[in-house]
Amino acid sequence: MFMSDIDKDQKNLLEQGTDQEAVDQDTDQEKKDQGKWYVVHTYSGYENKVKVNLEKIIENRNLQDLILEVKVPVEEQIEIKDGKRKAITRKLYPGYVIVKMIMTDESWYIIRNTRGVTGFVGPGSKPIPLTDREVLAMGVEDIPIVLDAEVGDNIRVISGPLENFIGIIEEIYPDKQKVKVSVSMFGRDTPVELEYNQIQKI
Q: What is the pLDDT of residues 17-71, one digit of tens each?
């Protein structure tokens, strides 16, 4: 009897622990959702130094709840030199660092006064967060897009080689964030795959 009581207590404690973990995870997700991406201007060549300095400050002052991520977007390119192929990393936006943060007086002050930072991008002293479309276009973060169209809807292509073409949605692939669209080209209906952010319902 005594043993079964202990077992019950342990089970309850374990369940409470699991519940607490779930609450903590939800809270972390909420904080991430609250954070917005801002563009920070730096001295040329200081992008990586600013990133490292900021990450040290965040860790030392336990500011992970306010400043969530710091990125210097890069892309890999193949360079051919003396007949040899070499992969090089190139900064996509020289002179800029992208920061995901919850904007408060404290977080603004810390970033604004980090060595190498010249200011936020925005009118005057008011930083403007990037829109979801801008975040996607800059390749900073993959944000799932909620498609406001269904199979059978007419759409206009708003970017890419088929820009301004009109088509009809034939299939939707939510896992890939893509749609199959029948587009009329040269008098024939041609099926093409497009990203969610390449189309607009009409």
A: 545 454 445 545 555 567 999 999 999 999 999 999 999 999 999 999 999 999 9
**Nearest Cα to 118, choosing from 50, 17, 48, 199?**
50
Q: Do the beta carbons of residue 4 and residue 11 sit within 8 Å?
A: no
Residue type at 95 in one-letter notation: G
pTM: 0.58
- The enclosing H or E element of 9 equals helix 2-34
Q: Compute the distance between CA of residue 51 and CA of residue 96 in angstroms, rounded to an integer.
A: 10
d(CA 37, CA 107): 13
Domain(s) of CATH 3.30.70.940: residues in the chain: 28-138
CA distances from 7 to 12, 15, 18, 31, 57 (A): 9, 12, 16, 36, 45
Would you identify the CATH topology of the domain 154-201?
Answer: SH3 type barrels. (2.30.30)
Of the options 3.40.30.10, 3.90.1140.10, 3.30.70.940, 3.40.630.30, the CATH number for the domain spanning 28-138: 3.30.70.940
Q: Say which residues have a Cβ less than 8 Å from residue 159's Cβ, sequence separation at least 6.
A: 197, 198
Write out the H or E segment, with its range, that includes residue 59.
helix 47-60
Alpha helices in 99-156, H assignment, sequence order? 105-112, 132-138
What is the per-residue burial (b if ≥16 Cβ within 10 Å, else e) of 128-141? ebbeeeebbebebe
